Amino acid sequence: MSLVGKKAPVFNAPAVINGEEIVESFSLADYIGKKEVIFFFYPKDFTFVCPTEIHAFQEKLEEFEKRGVQVVGVSCDTEETHLAWLMTDKDKGGISGVTYPLVADSSKTIATNYGTLAGDWNYNEEGELEFEGAPVSYRGTFFIDKEGVVRHETINDLPLGRNIDEMLRIVDAWHHVEKHGEVCPANWEEGKDAMQATRDGVSSYLSSH
Question: What positions does the domain Thioredoxin occupy (predicted)?
């Protein structure tokens, strides 16, 4: 079930903030009324594709912050594992230098509530409870507005890294919609023509603002 148009599931969980400090109770609710949030799930610490995405978000962090957007990452690892990875140099496969929060979802409840968990518990023929699939999260990305409502979501399979510039485009499109009341067509980027939705549902192109 898609979360678009619905309130983002709330949670309180441990996290590492500022790349060095463990906090026991982190919540996206702290940003409601203050900032929009890009909340992204990645499969696992100390892997290969994940650090490329995590560093890519860090490289674009200033661009998100200029737009009033907080970036928050989450995986099913523990907060201690997050911290160990953050303390490992980039040239050794670590993510040293990352400053945005990384949430620990070791119970897998956050991934379950957001629909990103790559497996589930089921009983086998012997009546034994087994986990089917991978006990990690798919690469889910959620754009959450200031009211805590999900406005965009994508979920990639484990091998497929995401495009961070596309997340910035989504933010820009949402800001354009809010500011001008127009809708954004395919491949829209900041500075390009938007569209005006008429009462009968037919849209017409307008000049750039």
Answer: 2-176
Cα–Cα distances (Å) from 102 to 82, 161, 170, in that order, read 7, 18, 22
User: By three-state DSSP, how is residue 18 classified?
Assistant: coil
3-state secondary structure string, 62-121? HHHHHCCEEEEEEECCCHHHHHHHHCCCHHHCCCCCCCCCEEECCCCHHHHHHCCEEEEE
The catalytic residues are 50
Is the entire prediction scored with pTM above 0.85?
Answer: yes
The domains located in the chain, with CATH, are 13-162 (3.40.30.10), 163-209 (no CATH)
In angstroms and rounded to an integer, the radius of gyration of the C-alpha atoms of the chain is: 19
107 in Cβ contact with 114 (< 8 Å): no
Q: Convert the pLDDT of each residue in 77-135 to its tens digit.
A: 999 999 999 999 999 999 999 999 999 999 999 999 999 999 988 898 888 988 889 99
Alpha-carbon span 119 to 104, nearest angstrom: 18
Does 193 score more than 70 pLDDT?
Answer: no
Q: pLDDT band at residue 191, thresholds of 50, 70 and 90?
A: low
Q: What's the CA gap between 165 and 46, in Å, rounded?
A: 24
